């Protein structure tokens, strides 16, 4: 596709100011902002505001009740009546295990053509891509091609647990015609963006079984409750050997695929290198013998019950003969449209009660999550992101059905697309997270092109 003159000028400006963009991303990565550990979030929010102000963009840090600040800004357009909300997050995953890092996790070291550090990809490069793209448009043309609103939050990595009430109380701060998020990546087979036209909801729960008042000698095992075994038995009632969820009514109202979704799956299956996908995952075969279009369909449209972690009793070196007084398991349920998370939580509680596990505690991490959603490929924002990917990456993107996140839509609905520019080797959520310098600059151009293409939609 031929790049419009106006957009090419913006791309040229981005290239000419490459070093500035890199230095600012380094500053942001060097500021710890670990939501799970409540480290550095206010300082990072203040830094995002500073960086936006330095680049001529309006921004303000809004305190959330019991939570870290949320940065919101706006840049109106003189030429477009449309407004697009740019969503990103400044919080990061914990960097542990620290001894697995080649470079310190908050050093933002540049080596081998990459910035190394926690948040370099997820999602601080996305934060900066929005900012630098908007600045590029303002410097080149004195205007942005579409009205922009920015929201950068500080708890995405732990479920955005305090964002919902703030949005519910202040909907006009984020209300827009569409939203997009640069928190995704490139398809491993073709190194072109994955574009997700919907979001799964994540119901994250912890089940706790309790026994005696403290750990007891295993000689007394016949006389006391055994929480670990109780939890194992409870877990075995949740899914069968084919991973079908056995909770009564779980699949009610399940999204039924139409021609559009089936067409997307068929198109993706014809392009994706499944052998490479397996190699990247470190498996010889996909689970349950799935492959091709069946594997893609399951990944996008299958509800899941996944055990994230289990703990009970002694796990150190050697032996310790005890009956643990407590056992815990963390589970994430991925809910596709139209499975309602509030109903799902009630069904899970009833299932445990009905199967004799009423004594097992059910804790929901954070608040009840937002409902999942799905939009059409025909939406303006869908077409804008697809066209922008073609312009920047030179080939069609991989368009998927649904992916995984979102809180704002629970209170302010707008069509939303998740995309991004993270490379498959970025070590997302793992030690040695990184972003390639060239990939980052290309991501800024991608953000600028999305702004352009969405602004052009009202002229079509």
Task: Please tag this protein with its features.
Aminopeptidase, 4-stranded antiparallel beta sheet, alpha+beta, 33% helix, 6-stranded mixed beta sheet, 22% strand, 2 domains, 19 strands, Alpha-Beta Plaits, single chain
CATH superfamily descriptor of the largest domain: Zn peptidases
Highest-level CATH class of the largest domain: Alpha Beta
Radius of gyration: 23 Å
The largest beta-sheet arranges its strands as 1-2-6-3-7-18
| Strand-residue proportion | 15-25%
How far do the termini sit from each other? 17 Å
Short characterization:
This protein is an alpha+beta fold and 460 residues long.
Protein model, in words:
With 460 residues, this protein is an alpha+beta fold. It is 33% helix and 22% strand. It has twelve helices and 19 strands. A hairpin with a 2-residue loop joins strand 1 and strand 2 (67-75). Helix 7 (259-269) packs across helix 9 (292-301) and helix 11 packs across helix 12 (437-457). It starts with a helix and ends with a helix.
Helices and strands in order:
Layout (H helix, E strand, L loop, with lengths): L4 H12 L1 H13 L10 H14 L5 E5 L2 E9 L7 E7 L19 E3 L2 E3 L7 H18 L5 E7 L9 H7 L8 E8 L8 E3 L1 E2 L1 E10 L5 E2 L9 H9 L23 H11 L4 H8 L10 H10 L2 E9 L9 E2 L2 E10 L5 H14 L6 E4 L8 E2 L5 H14 L4 E3 L15 E7 L11 E3 H21 L3
Parallel strand pairs: 3-6, 3-7, 7-18, 8-17
Antiparallel strand pairs: 1-2, 2-6, 4-5, 5-19, 9-16, 10-14, 10-15, 11-13, 12-14
Helix pairs in contact: 1-4, 1-12, 2-4, 4-12, 7-9, 11-12
